[in-house]
Amino acid sequence: MTYQQKTFYRSLRHPCIAWSIALLILWMSNASMASEEDRVAPLATFDFAIAETLNAIGHPPRFLSGLEGYERYSRQEEILPHVINLGYRHFPNLELLSSDPPQHILISPPAHVSLLPRLRNIADVMEYPLYKYADVEDGHNDWDTIEGLTRQLGDLVEDPDAAERYIEQSRRHFTSLKQALVDIDSPLLVVRLMDERHARVYGAGSVEGMMLNRLGLENAWQKDLGQWGMTTVSATPLFDIDAKLVFLDSPYGPDGGVEQLISDGQWRHLPNVKQGNYTIIPVNYWSWGGFPAARRFADSLANQLTESNR
């Protein structure tokens, strides 16, 4: 044992010094916890994109509806440890919310517009339409919409610098991924299998579509999409599409569920599947989320594409 260590342990034997050190450690621990809780913004939101963006810029909301479902869907436990869960996303506990009214309630229309009269009796309501529901002049760009959301939230919590830092960080990260994927020239078809005969195809109006565009990747699906940036199809319209299939592995299915579906029903007859021209990535993000969701999708996609391209 060194001289310094002996001196330290002898000092601990002195009750006054030991007690002082214990108090200091307790104070530092409490100060750290208080600091984290002090960052919580006096806000409630029913939208995951808003909640994760607030969290990313260092000001998580006080209330969020659907928290447990979001944690499961995004595979992120305790992602918002100081947030109060308002229950099911479509049926939030308004009694709990009204018992400790937030400064603002943040929603993303068209979701929850039916609750507006009741919400306005609790607190000021602010609306942030996103993706295909965003009102954007001079053409529609999902990236610009999400950037705008991030800046608006930064202004709301009076920390615009944090929002700008996060936007710049996101830009650099996605630029790096784009450079890593420069050799990927095959169109991609992003698909989530629903059962042995039906699938959802994703494009503009979703995180998946936004990131394909941002990363310079071609989306093979050029047909109509619904207002949520996806459409449900059977296997038939996919037979003639020459593209690498990107299957989204749902967190609600069993382990290996996508592989099982691919080998069942009509999916095993797709030329892309027969040729092994597909990959599977986890759905560990919200398909209509902000930059945090976009990053999780993009990271998984880039990892799989670069691995399969070696």
Structural summary, described in words:
With 310 residues, the protein is an alpha/beta fold. Helix content is 44%, strand content 15%. The chain contains twelve helices and ten strands. It has a five-stranded parallel beta sheet with strand order 3-2-1-4-5. Helix 8 runs parallel beside helix 12. It is globular and about 60 Å long.
Task: Indicate the topology.
Elements: H1 3-13, H2 15-38, E1 41-45, H3 48-56, E2 61-64, H4 67-74, E3 84-85, H5 94-99, E4 104-107, H6 116-120, E5 124-127, H7 142-156, H8 160-180, E6 188-193, E7 198-202, H9 207-214, E8 230-234, E9 244-249, H10 257-263, H11 271-274, E10 278-282, H12 291-308
Parallel strand pairs: 1-2, 1-4, 2-3, 4-5, 6-9, 9-10
Antiparallel strand pairs: 6-7, 7-8
Helix pairs in contact: 7-8, 8-12, 9-12
Strand order of the largest sheet: 3-2-1-4-5
Count of distinct strands: 10
Oligomer: single chain
N-to-C CA distance: 53 Å
Keywords for this entry:
10 strands, 12 helices, 310 residues, disordered N terminus, alpha/beta
Describe the structure concisely.
This protein has about 300 residues and is α/β, with parallel strands linked by helices. The protein has 12 helices and 10 strands.
